[in-house]
């Protein structure tokens, strides 16, 4: 049948300029939406943070996640955390600062930031489907010491829609890693959050400044609009 080709291109009204994406070469990358960062009693709170600051990102991420699932886009979730024996946790990370509980200590959601514990899991609202990719990462960046590069190459991914927490820590680190590896990153502004609103703002500005030195920034409405209105 004529004109039956699936639309494959979309234009996101992003900053610093609109970006055209080939949807089959685009993945949604959701960074560390774990109970350890989002809920009281987890790693984020042990560092002295107000975890309620992060809740605002859940609904926008949920909307883009639904659109990604509806359109068959590859969805990748990441989780920051460590092996139970802490063999992948550098002492420089574990011993840092004066948290109320350290990585590996028992907390109300199990051992802090340890794989397999309740606190390490992704929040129910954004829980991965069995068909989706989950990347466990020991660092802030999603490329360091993970199989993410292999996954992206396997699926022919060139572009990443990036969201999650926190804006200036794991999101920014991952976007910088991805940018150096040649991926186009569009960061979903309202799908990211920080314990520090001013760091969220500056974290997004740093990405899109200088002509998009690390990538592009768009809100979830612009991303959803582009996913809806595609051209061949
Ligand atoms: N502390 C903080 O803002 N973030 C992290 O430790 N990890 C992530 O951002 N996922």
In brief:
Pfam families: Isochorismatase. The chain has eight helices and eleven strands.
Explained architecture:
- The structure is a single chain.
- The chain is an alpha/beta fold and 232 residues long.
- The chain has one domain (9-148, 190-229): Isochorismatase-like (Rossmann fold).
- It has 8 helices and 11 strands.
- The structure holds tricarbonodiimidic diamide.
- Tricarbonodiimidic diamide (TIU) is lined by residues 32, 37, 44, 47, 80, 140, 165-166, 169-170, 195.
- It holds the Pfam family Isochorismatase.
- This is Nicotinamidase-related amidase.
- It comes from Bradyrhizobium huanghuaihaiense.
What is the CATH architecture descriptor?
A: 3-Layer(aba) Sandwich
Poorly predicted sequence stretches spanning 5 or more consecutive residues: none
Q: Determine the strand fraction and express it as a percent band.
A: 15-25%
| Topology pattern, helix = H, strand = E | EEEHHHEHEEEHEHEHEHE
- Overall 3D form: globular
Number of strands: 11
Which fold does the CATH topology refer to?
Rossmann fold
Classify the helix fraction into a percent range.
25-40%
**Biggest beta-sheet profile:** 6 strands, parallel
How are strands sequenced across the largest beta sheet? 7-4-3-8-9-10
How many individual domains? 1
* Mean pLDDT over the full residue set: 96
Radius of gyration: 18 Å
The ligands found in this model are: tricarbonodiimidic diamide
Q: What gap, in angstroms, lies between the N and C termini?
A: 15 Å
């Amino acid at each position: 049948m004529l004109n039956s080709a699936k639309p494959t291109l979309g234009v996101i009204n992003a900053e610093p300029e609109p970006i055209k994406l080939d949807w089959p070469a685009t993945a949604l990358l959701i960074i560390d939406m774990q109970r350890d960062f989002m809920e009281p009693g987890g790693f984020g709170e042990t560092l002295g943070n107000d975890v309620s600051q992060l809740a605002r990102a859940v609904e926008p991420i949920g909307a883009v996640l639904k659109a990604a699932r509806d359109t068959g886009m590859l969805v990748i979730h990441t989780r920051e955390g460590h092996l139970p024996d802490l063999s992948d946790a550098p002492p420089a990370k574990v011993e840092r600062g004066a948290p109320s509980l350290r990585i590996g200590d028992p907390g109300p959601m199990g051992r802090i930031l340890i794989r397999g514990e309740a606190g390490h899991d992704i929040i129910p609202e954004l829980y991965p489907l069995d068909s989706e990719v989950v990347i466990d990462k020991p660092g802030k960046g999603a490329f360091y010491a993970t199989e993410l590069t292999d996954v992206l190459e396997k699926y022919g991914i060139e572009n990443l829609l990036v969201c999650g927490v926190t804006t200036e820590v794991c999101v920014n680190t991952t976007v910088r890693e991805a940018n150096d590896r040649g991926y186009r990153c569009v960061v979903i502004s309202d799908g990211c959050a920080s314990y520090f609103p001013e760091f969220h703002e500056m974290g997004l500005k740093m990405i899109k400044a200088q002509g998009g030195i690390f990538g592009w920034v768009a809100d979830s409405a612009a991303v959803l609009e582009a996913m809806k209105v595609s051209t061949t």
